[in-house]
């Protein structure tokens, strides 16, 4: 029988809850952090690790948990988890521009969250600096549904940058990966992600039918795009049906 443990920790003033299998922490997460610690000490430089995954996998919670876990272990270099979402174009821009997605011109506001709605030039400018100096990082504030610039100070020696599109096998994302010292891809079965995303919309007040329609018209495209068009990471993790992680 699996032994699960629930963790509560504070991130940016908000309490987060994470539930992970004890064996997974001991056999996957801690060895991974020790490997990154060894790499950082050998290279004697700041490491930037890209963590990519489709929507609803739980990558943000995982990365924040790994940050928390690194602070609890004396033999592991403290890591810092940051996100890609602060590089969405501002809402005013999205609401007034179109994007070409899969060969079709569509209003950006209808596909917000797809790779074409990210300011990749701004992202690359930040990544050019992050390896050499402490910088300020933008966030996406879900209370105002917009980007807020220069909120997080990036100052640790190991950085986990998480986002859907970081391992996408197309430009400009392919070129952006030159700034990564390592890559992690998190995968899951599409049907499981579908149910998670539909469940999120239902919690937000939509009916099951409306949530399914939203998934088919929006989320499904992004899920499949990440699963089908991402390159394999240096490490590949799988999220199982019971929410546990495995390596394949």
TrEMBL record:
Q: Which domain of life is it from?
A: Bacteria
One GO MF term: kinase activity
InterPro entries reported in the protein's UniProt record? P-loop_NTPase
Q: Which UniProt keywords apply?
A: Kinase, Transferase
Q: What is this protein called?
A: Nucleoside/nucleotide kinase family protein
Species of the source? Candidatus Anaerostipes excrementavium
